[in-house]
Write a structure and sequence with these properties.
45% helix, mainly alpha, binds zinc ion
Amino acid sequence: MMAEICSMCYKQIDEHKDGNGKVYWTQGHNAQPLVADDTGDASMLDHARCCDSCNDLVLEVRIMQAFGWQSVPQKVIGWFKDAKTASDMMMAHMRLTQLIQTLAEQTKEGV
Ligand SMILES: [Zn+2]
């Protein structure tokens, strides 16, 4: 089975194995709403799967949306939608990672 590449960080998508070590899933996770799937370009930017660690970031954004946050998720989605190249995408991924870290620290400090 061919390993898929994460459309957010460009690392290999983790293979999920069953109890016997047999790979049963290589397609990662749905990266909505952070994928730029409307670029019309047959690059990796067009595919919408992400690895386990990026899925954690995607879930954070979905949780913000579920809590009714508007501006932060919209800003984040904008970074990804504006990404036209792999390096843009990795920059968007890095900014999101930093944002999540900052938010986590603020929560810990009880701000
Ligand atoms: Zn990834």
